[in-house]
């Protein structure tokens, strides 16, 4: 019998059960979620998509991700920072993305904030990874109760406060915890998931910016 939050397939491989909720999740769970990321553009994209996901199912965003990339110039924040009112109206008529004006405006605002942060500190990745939780903050065992619902953590609350202080928007503690999961700052593959140990190995080898 599977443990809560885990599913074993006919080949005997056990994964986080959400992996089987939609075909798009298979690759995302196995090859992206939890893999450490140090590229500034990729990190800006993850922040934006997690912000668009607020109040929605992640599968909706994942299915639209390629179109989001087309609509926002590959999430090159230096280009998005130049967007004006005409771009907002263009995006509001684009059925391939989530047409939420506040989130679109936030994406442009956050691009400008990213430019300022990189100019000031040299790297969005270096700044974000400074919020990685220490060993004392990490759970001894990761189970379904740990990240079910709308999880936050002391580290995600610190990151949220710091970004908001710098003028970023749609970066609440829950959204930032989802970012930390997605960018590999934490490894929340459940104990027993086939991906947990390989991801932890990648984290061990990862050179922090």
From TrEMBL:
Pfam families: Adenine_glyco (PF03352). Signal peptide: none annotated. SUPFAM superfamilies: DNA-glycosylase. InterPro entries: Adenine_glyco, DNA-3mA_glycosylase, DNA_glycosylase. PANTHER family: DNA-3-METHYLADENINE GLYCOSYLASE 1, DNA-3-METHYLADENINE GLYCOSYLASE I. This is DNA-3-methyladenine glycosylase I.
